[in-house]
Amino acid sequence: MLDARDIRVSLAGTPVLQGVHFRARPGQVTTIVGPNGSGKTTLLRAMTQEASYSGEVTLDGEDISRLPGWQLAARRAVLPQASRIAFPFTVFEIVRLGLTASAEAAQESRVSEALDRVGLAGFEGRFYQELSGGEQQRVQLARVLTQVWEPIGAEGARWLFLDEPVSSLDIGHQLEVMSLLAAYAQAGGGVIAVMHDLNLTAMYADDIAILADGRVLRQGPPSAVLTDSLLSEAYGCAVRVNAAPAGDVPFILPHMASIS
Ligand SMILES: Nc1ncnc2c1ncn2[C@@H]1O[C@H](COP(=O)(O)OP(=O)(O)O)[C@@H](O)[C@H]1O
Ligand SMILES: [Mg+2]
């Protein structure tokens, strides 16, 4: 279980997170949604020890700020919102970085396995900088998967922290990646993903935290969080949650009638 309590972050003298409580359980896909600038990336960066914060983040009861880097690397992998690479690395070299950080003894053949999982079989020799944005995003995902390949390790559940993992992908690859994340959770791992697309979130999230202005408005199952009033409040526009024609997955549309 990941538990973040009373997280406060100020950036350039401005409070960005103002006492956030957030939790995630292994075996679930937990998503963080909210408007641009609401603090989603900052929350992820605090929980991955990349931004300084006050408050406490614990992983299975242990304060993660006290865990040495090698232990953290063994237990969780992080996909940042954007990954710029300044040198002409090949896809193989980037994905292999995950293997270097991993606690698992694994063959380099895992690099190709990971690329296969994200739909990039055969891309090993390509230069990262010459790939499309969506292909680069999937290379980075292959890298983090390689780091925590087995969803459960000796120390317990492993975790994926992902900042908008499907934002540059077409719908086919979005579904492929979200299914992969759901499978990771079903196998016992923890998945925490910042999401932009509310409809994909509705399809795949077990638990959703909705942020606005540096605070969590609500965290809970989709039925409790994907409501007209909460979404309209968070996003500052009229939003309507509808029932999908087939199945019981909600889908969300802006309320056209309110656009003047
Ligand atoms: N390095 C920084 N210095 C100052 N302000 C920042 C910095 N990074 C982010 N912010 C501000 O913090 C707020 C939250 O940013 P962020 O967490 O990236 O939002 P989100 O991911 O929800 O879009 C925004 O208002 C943003 O402008
Ligand atoms: Mg962000």
Describe the structure.
- Helix content is 33%, strand content 28%.
- The chain is of the alpha/beta class and 260 residues long.
- It has a single domain, classed as Rossmann fold (3-Layer(aba) Sandwich).
- A six-stranded mixed beta sheet has the order 6-9-10-3-11-12, sandwiched between helices.
- Strand 7 and strand 8 form a beta hairpin.
- The longest helix is centred in the C-terminal third of the chain and has 16 residues.
- The protein is globular.
- Magnesium ion (MG) binds next to helix 1.
Q: What is the 3D shape?
A: globular
What is the percent of helical residues? 25-40%
Question: Count of helical segments?
Answer: 9
CATH hierarchy class name: Alpha Beta
The oligomeric state of the chains shown is: single chain
Distinct compounds present: adenosine-5'-diphosphate, magnesium ion
Strand order of the largest sheet: 6-9-10-3-11-12
**Radius of gyration over all CA atoms, rounded:** 18 Å
Average pLDDT rating: 93
CATH-derived topology: Rossmann fold
Low-confidence stretches: none
Number of strands: 14
Based on helices, strands and strand pairing, what is the structural class? alpha/beta
| Distance linking N and C termini | 45 Å
CATH architecture label name: 3-Layer(aba) Sandwich
Q: What's the order of the H and E elements?
A: EEEHEEHEHHHEEEHEHEEHHEE
Main β-sheet description? 6 strands, mixed
Main traits of this protein?
single chain; 260 residues; alpha/beta; Rossmann fold; 6-stranded mixed sheet; 14 strands; 28% strand; binds adenosine-5'-diphosphate; binds magnesium ion
